[in-house]
Amino acid sequence: MQNDVAADGVCSSESVNGSRDVWSCKGSFSSSADHLVIMVHGILGSSSNWKYGAEQFVKRLPDKVFVHCSERNMATLSLDGVDVMGERLADEVLDVIQEKPNLSKISFVAHSVGGLVARYAIGKLYRPPKEEVKDDISGNGCKEEPRATIGGLEAINFITVATPHLGSRGNKQVPFLFGVTAFEKAASYVIHWIFRRTGRHLFLTDDDVEKPPLQPPLLKRMLEDYEECYFMSALHLFKRRVLYANVGYDHIVGWRTSSIRRESELPKWGESLNEKYPHIVYEEHCKACDSEQYETISTEDDGSSDKLVSWVAHPKSVTLEEELVRGLSRVSWEKVDVSFHNSRLRFAAHSVIQVKDEFMHTEGADVIQHLIDHFHT
Question: Name one Pfam family in it (predicted).
Fold first, then answer.
């Protein structure tokens, strides 16, 4: 274990396996910090990808947070599949909680595929309310209602940054394929050669290769409480769910999939909202929707033209992408759209939005600042 003490009062340690913990060097702040922030990297990434973000959290909230940058899915381990990575992350989180008994709250901040891994992990970490009801010791005659938890902790923020929540199979969901239908279909057949099981999960082609009996693609299964994984119950448990999405120049993850929107729902955006956050161009608070609101909607098929369908009369006509939009819209979301169109690093938007590398600080720092400024502690 290697420990570092920064001049700005931020302490960090890096394990032999590569995990990174960040906390305040001031003893009183460190002892009072009861909010665990789990930061999850994307495909082929490492815990160092969130180094800047983790340090900014502790600088701004020194007496509130203890930050853990995950390491069990680093590099090529991130090709093993969303489910396998989710299991590893859940185990890693439980180990951190066991080592820090003073923790009472938990939040997740995840980049790219890490957002899907975090969604899987919280499904494994969900703990239903205990049956017994404890008497209130304050003597006011009230009783404390039992609450569900994430690994025994109160769930506060679930934040994803440029995460492909709708997968990568739909039209223009992987921008570097230029929206060419032939390229997109070809990619769905060969992606597993490059990104193995994770590629199958992203392109929703895992329904025909996984163990029998035949099951829907993993991302569809994650729309429900499935077997021993409480995916939606866990997601619903968080007080806030936030999506940061690139409106353009993200060649890896499209705007629709990272903001959980249909093509017709993508907002018109202009210049930045204010000088403090020059790259934030649109914000929206979306309330939870139920299935009854989807009787007649317009959907976009994979690479084909739009068509009007009735969910009630023709449920099979609804595309898989539409099912994912509907399923994830059953909980409320805060949506924050980001644009690096005027940035010299705009072509690296997928990494800049995370402030992945040192040279990106001047470009993406306001996004991290926005994230922390609105973070519930």
Answer: DUF676
